[in-house]
Amino acid sequence: MLRLRHFFLICSGAHLPLLxxxxxxxxxxxxxxxxxxFTGLFAAIAAGYALWTVFQNPWAAIGFALLWGLxxxxxxxxxxxSLKKRDRFGKELWMALPRLILAVMIAVVISKPLExxxxxxxxxxxxxxxxxxxxxxxxxxxxxxxxxRKAELASRMTALQSQISFQTARVDTLQLRAQQExxxxxxxxxxxxxxxxxxxxxxxxxxxxxxxxLQTQRAALAADIKAEDxxxxxxxxxxxxxxxDGMASRLEALGRITKKAPHPMGQLVHHATIHRPGNCTxxx
Length: 284
Prior knowledge:
Blueprint: H1 2-12, H2 16-20, H3 26-55, H4 58-82, H5 89-118, H6 120-183, H7 195-237, H8 247-260, H9 262-274
Helix pairs in contact: 1-3, 3-4, 3-5, 4-5, 6-7, 6-8, 8-9
């Protein structure tokens, strides 16, 4: 226990030989040293987690976490140890201002990665939703480029189908008239294959040829529509899907969760944002 207190006294930056002459101040400076140490520790943990989400490399995360924690520890220790008692409150506030600014910065840096870790499950679910929305947006953008062309082809197919239906009915009618003329049940009422029959048969054959041409055009148009659909499918399949999983995406997901669920999780996130672990370092 004495070794731990001695370590915290070193962390506080106090002058140990002078502190031995004022033992009543020992607990005060041990508390200051513990606060400085844990500030650096929390900063290292937060930085390590943040770097892990970015690089997915444990060695890079651990190395940067140690570097960042030591930097925050050393900077915090320097600022606290350099504070001196002044005659005026204004001068003391001016001297403490860098410490207050650092406390705010540390609070932001420490709290955000911790919030991301606390709400990791909710964030992963929100990232999946964001990925689906991103895919839908990309698909809609590509489909929009094909909309006019497909609408034009569909309009042409509708008009062509209408012509085919009309021409089919006309062919049936002309063929029926020619047949009736041939067997004497209609037309001249004379059963023969004379000139009248041949004229009606020629009209029916001409209409059938026109119908065949329309059907050929419909087949070609159907092939164009299928080619457009295949091209659209290939464009969508060729899209490079990037799953949003970086730090910025996680922060965006956390913000979306806060907006969409104000009760009760949004209040919990809001509470975690206000009462951050680093805020306790702002007052000595």
